[in-house]
Write a structure and sequence with these properties.
Length: about 450
């Protein structure tokens, strides 16, 4: 008999095989929708790496990595059904797998005893934050038992709207939220924070040149970087979303010298997911066997989060098969696909008259979830990180998007040794040149301030 039920944000999968038979119980995060036979790999004692690999395949982005604990309790019971009058002692094994950092006990699935993460979200009155904050509060990003304390940072004119956001969050009655603090004060916002999600920045207006936009944002991210340096936890993880994201991240990083440079990243995960989505659409339009985004792996976004970004599918796989074995249209791959990814943001603005918000929030969630909890075994994701020490010939001292493997607890490593074609290499150099020019503009502006 199969039983699949949701318990306080978890899905408990159970298999029962007769009296005295096996009794397996698996507790994982997220909701599960699959056929009973698909659950078989989960319903046995697994190593931590096996559990992570299998469970993540089924749960996708809903899966939260953690230290997996195996509890094996062998119990016996009497079965006096035989005519010989002798008790036949039979045994069954109960195996409960759970994420140690996310489940307080096997009997109280509602318990949330973890220390609250202090999280600041800048631009908190804006549309991206409006989509992002619920994802944080329901445990979708940091875990279903991870308590949070929110610092909502925005400029003074946005404080009334920010109070409205606070009221809505309160009205949601999220059980993981310990505190909600709206503020325009940098010390209040960044004091002892563990995570800084910097969404707020000066938006590009009609007639503005790139250097004008950089100048407006340099002042913002210089101040926020200094506040991070002065007030935040020494192990704070910083994700910059506001554009120009790479150079804004660089500015914040350079103004927070006491924080490890590895702790700063900029968002290119949205471009990464757009690339996967376009591949799903193409494969489903040309193949009889349908695929989903979880079937598409090993795509890369190199460089800047701009129109010079480099969507690279050289190593892409679909259901474990090389992409070029499935999509033979080389012209589409090298031209239309690249252009569509590079121009997707502009297309959304044209259609909505607003920039990406829902998809940006989802990408922020995916970026942070992998950064904190680990990316899927055998997969890599795109993160814009400091280029120091890279092996791809990218100039040092830039915030540049690379393929990385996240190992959990904020650790990651660049995936080295990927083949780079002459076409991709030329594009990588072009986006690096743009970032070098942006950096020079930012440095020149900083020397005048």
């Amino acid at each position: 008999m199969w039983d699949c039920k949701e318990i306080s944000g978890f899905a408990m999968l159970s298999r029962r095989i007769g009296a005295g038979g096996e009794d397996f119980e698996v507790l994982t995060t997220g909701e599960v929708a699959c056929e009973p036979w698909e659950l078989e790999p989960l319903l046995r004692p697994l190593t931590e790496s096996e559990y992570n690999a299998v469970a993540r395949d089924f749960l996708g982005d809903q899966f939260i990595y953690g230290s997996i604990v195996h509890e094996a309790q062998r119990r016996g019971f009497d079965n006096d059904s035989d005519d010989d009058g002798q008790d036949d002692v039979k045994h069954s094994e109960d195996f409960t797998l759970y994420a140690e950092d996310h489940v307080a006990s096997s009997t109280d699935h509602h318990s949330c005893t973890m220390t609250a993460l202090k999280i600041v979200v800048s631009g908190a009155a804006g549309q991206i934050a409006y989509s992002l904050l619920p994802l944080i509060c329901i445990g979708h990003i940091f875990g279903p038992n991870q308590r949070v304390e929110l610092r909502l940072l925005d400029i003074e004119p946005a404080q009334e709207a920010l109070e409205g956001v606070k009221m809505e969050l309160q009205d949601c009655a999220f059980n993981l939220v310990d505190a909600i603090v709206p503020t325009a004060d940098l010390e209040t916002a960044f004091k002892d924070v563990d995570v800084a999600i910097l969404v707020g920045g000066f938006p590009r207006k009609q007639g503005m040149q790139r250097k004008d936009l950089i100048e407006k944002n340099v002042a913002i991210f210089k101040a926020q970087g200094a506040a991070i340096d002065k007030f935040a936890s020494r192990d704070v993880k910083v994700l910059v979303v506001a554009n120009p994201a790479n150079t804004n991240c660089l500015t914040a990083m350079e103004n927070a010298p006491s924080i490890p440079r590895r702790n700063f990243s900029a968002l290119t995960r949205l471009d990464h997911e757009r690339l996967r989505s376009f591949l799903v659409e193409k494969v489903n339009a040309t193949q009889s066997t349908k695929v989903t985004s979880k079937d598409v792996n090993k795509v890369v976004i190199w460089g800047n989060h701009s129109s010079t970004q480099v969507p690279d599918v050289t190593n892409a796989e679909v259901k474990g098969q090389p992409l070029d074995k499935i999509v033979s249209d080389k012209d589409w791959v090298e031209k239309k696909l690249v252009k569509d990814v590079q121009e997707r943001g502009a297309a959304i603005i044209k259609a909505r008259k607003l920039s990406s918000a829902m998809s940006a929030a989802a990408a922020i969630g995916a970026h942070l979830r992998d950064w904190f909890n680990g990316s899927k075994d055998g997969e890599f994701v795109s993160m814009a990180i400091c280029s120091d020490g890279n092996k791809y010939g990218v100039p040092e001292g830039l915030i540049y998007s690379f393929p990385v493997k996240c190992t959990g607890n904020g650790a990651y490593e660049v995936v080295n040794g990927l083949p780079i074609s002459p076409r991709i290499d030329a594009m990588m150099k072009a986006t690096a040149q743009e970032l070098t020019e942006e950096k020079a503009d930012a440095v020149e502006i900083l020397t005048r301030q």
